[in-house]
Amino acid sequence: GAVVSQHPSRVICKSGTSVKIECRSLDFQATTMFWYRQFPKKSLMLMATSNEGSKATYEQGVEKDKFLINHASLTLSTLTVTSAHPEDSSFYICSASRTSGGPSGELFFGEGSRLTVL
Amino acid sequence: GENVEQHPSTLSVQEGDSAVIKCTYSDSASNYFPWYKQELGKRPQLIIDIRSNVGEKKDQRIAVTLNKTAKHFSLHITETQPEDSAVYFCAASPNNDMRFGAGTRLTVKP
Asked: pLDDT tens digits, residue range A43-56?
């Protein structure tokens, strides 16, 4: 099966600092990657859709200047939480699909990154 | 955009009983309906999926049914086991955009 690796799995940072989370597809090319945020005992909330070589598409209510997404290659997308504050503490998960456009396909999820902002 | 509703939010069953989780979706363009299982602190894992050209799909103890007219689909787990305890998410996908339901926390009591 397809493998998506996410790093770091846990990060603790001070308020005001920026944190970068990486999402890699290890054995396939992912034209599209997705970033989700998950609060405790809650569902996966889509933050943005990341397309290789173009700007990310953000969901309504998600601050694009706060959550910077870069999809520089077919196997790597990064999420940078800028000037993090305690309310940004959450579980962030990326996923990737093998297909781009056309019929939908299975999403492969990273391990998730738990961010704690002190 | 697509809106997915999932019920119940929590479900507790006795080992060996069946469990049913139901979801509805709003976008008639949705053509792919996966179900994910997420254990505490872990990534969601696909357990079964169905496409809009099929009404039912079964894989051992797990089955999914789809009613396109009514825009709802359901997950059925038979002969439940304690290791089935987890949070289950349904999702609906028009093209390459996937939206998740709120999740159902299933507890299987030994």
From this structure: 889 899 888 888 89
| Residue pair B37/B12 in contact by the 8 Å Cβ criterion | no
Shortest Cα distance, chain A CAs vs residue B80, angstroms: 22
CA distance B12 to chain A (A): 16
List pLDDT tens digits, range A58-78: 999 999 999 999 988 889 999
State percent of chain B over pLDDT 90: 81
Nearest chain B residue (CA) to A97: B96
Residues of chain A with Cβ-Cβ distance to B99 below 8 Å are 46
Q: Provide the 3-class DSSP secondary structure of residue B105.
A: strand
Q: Which has the closest alpha carbon to A70: A87, A55, A88?
A: A55
Asked if B32 reaches chain A (Cβ–Cβ under 8 Å), the answer is yes
Q: Encode pLDDT of B25-41 as tens digits.
A: 999 989 999 999 999 88
Q: Please say whether the beta carbons of A18 and A117 come within 8 A.
A: no
Q: Does A1 touch chain B (CB under 8 A)?
A: no
For residue B6, the chain A residue with the least C-alpha distance is A43
Bond from prior residue into B34 cis (ω within 30 degrees of 0) = no
pLDDT in tens, A81-101: 999 999 999 999 999 987 654
Which residues of chain B make contact with A32, given a CB cutoff of 8 A?
96
